[in-house]
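Render this sequence as a predicted structure.
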Amino acid sequence: MAKIYIPYGSVEGQTAQIAEYIAERVRAHGHQAETADLKHSKHTLPGGYDGVIVAASVHMGKHEGFVTDFVKKNRGELDRLPSALVSVSLAVRGDEQSAEGYVEKFEEETGWRPAHVGLFAGALLYTQYNFLKRQLMKKITKDEGSLDLDTTRDYVYTEWDGVQRFTDDFLAGLAAPAG
């Protein structure tokens, strides 16, 4: 049985939901999983884990600074352990090249090159935004040609099957003999 640590950075909650989903999937495979909100926890990777999946949301073209700080501080351990990055952004939905660019910038900034990277779409949570952010997100969404402009509801774009496959692949890599 492996013990997996899943630290995450989430602003509006979708990345937190993805991290919790990954933890549930890890447990369903008979392993242990612990999630940690990096906004409210220590930035030191605790010992005793067999793998790490870092999950980070992208806002304004960058991953959350506290996630970047965590990765920089723990890069040695992340390089030593089987580790992965989950990058969550709305760009995945329509501009995967931009989403990949966010990961490249993150890798350059942190020096960490995770063996596994999952790009997942987040959510457009109009009902949680204040007036100004709601109008800004509606304008951006409209400019991108999307019809998801009803600000009285939320739009969740995360492909949960993809998150499941990503998690299963990561766990299969833990079980594979080193060759």
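Summary. The chain has seven helices and eight strands. The chain has a mean pLDDT of 92.
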